[in-house]
Design a protein that fits this description.
The protein is of the alpha/beta class. The protein has a domain of 142 residues: P-loop containing nucleotide triphosphate hydrolases (Rossmann fold), CATH 3.40.50.300. The protein contains 9 helices and 10 strands. It has a 6-stranded mixed β-sheet with strand order 6-7-8-3-9-10, with helices on both faces. The chain is globular. The C terminus is likely disordered.
Length: 246
């Protein structure tokens, strides 16, 4: 389970990027939705230890998320993965694996090949990353998030830059991970994809959690895009009223 308890992230004197955020996530695939700048990436970076909360706590299975024990349970794909351009895909996975203290060998090499096959770039593993397209880089970023056999996957816009076929294939990979017993925390702005793969969703706007629950509960019989825009509009209208009375 992922547990957020009154988490706040404040940058100097600016308005909090994340404000008094509490949430418990214990479903196979959780979709985290919000407009650009809503706080999605800040939340994810705090989970994986790239940012420290100003206040509050984040726990993974009862462990502080920034602890080494919790990090060994995690795989993380950032919004814009960065690579050593002159490494091959196989070499890059080996490099990432070594960060967890593992040494490459016959078994691990087979593991890397399996991961590249899972994300649909098996043949590209022997080529340098500088030759990869945007979509191939996204797939490699997904593969490196799996290299340590994590229990929890934290994916920040993993379908960005993929064509319709690529998006379909990566959604099938996520559903496969669900059947393997892993859990996926997915940041995305592609609402239709959330409706297809997620068990629950959370909506963040202006740093605050506005909704969490089942996808069907959120949609209430309407298209997810329509319900999302209604939620954002209602929050914006409430903010304008509060400011008027302040």
């Amino acid at each position: 389970m992922i547990e957020f308890s009154r988490v706040t992230k404040q940058y100097r004197k600016r308005k909090p990027a994340v404000d008094d955020f509490s949430l418990a996530v214990d479903v196979p695939i959780f979709g985290f939705l919000g407009q650009n700048g809503a706080g999605k990436t800040t939340v994810m970076k705090m989970i994986v230890g790239l940012l420290e909360p100003t206040a509050g706590s984040i726990m993974i299975d009862g462990l502080p998320s920034a602890s080494a024990a919790a990090k060994h349970k995690m795989g993380y794909m950032p919004e814009t993965p960065y690579f050593y351009e002159r490494m091959t895909g196989m070499e890059f996975l080996g490099f990432c694996d070594a960060l967890y203290g593992r040494r490459g060998g016959g078994t691990r090499v087979a593991h890397y090949e399996s991961l590249l096959g899972k994300v649909g770039i098996a043949e590209a593993g022997r080529f340098e990353i500088r030759t990869y397209s945007k979509g191939m880089r996204q797939r490699l970023g997904f593969a490196q998030a799996l290299v340590n056999d994590p229990e929890y996957l934290f994916l920040d816009e993993p379908l960005d830059g993929l064509d319709p076929l690529g998006r379909r294939e990566m959604k099938e990979v996520m559903l496969g991970l669900k059947h393997e017993g892993r859990k996926v925390f997915l940041n995305t702005h592609i609402l239709a994809d959330v409706e297809e793969v997620c068990d629950e969703v959370g909506i963040i706007h202006a740093g605050k959690l506005r909704f969490s629950g089942g996808v069907r509960e959120f949609c209430a019989g309407k298209p997810i895009e329509e319900r999302f825009m209604e939620t954002v509009a209602a929050v914006a209208e409430a903010g304008e009223v509060n400011n008027h009375h302040a």
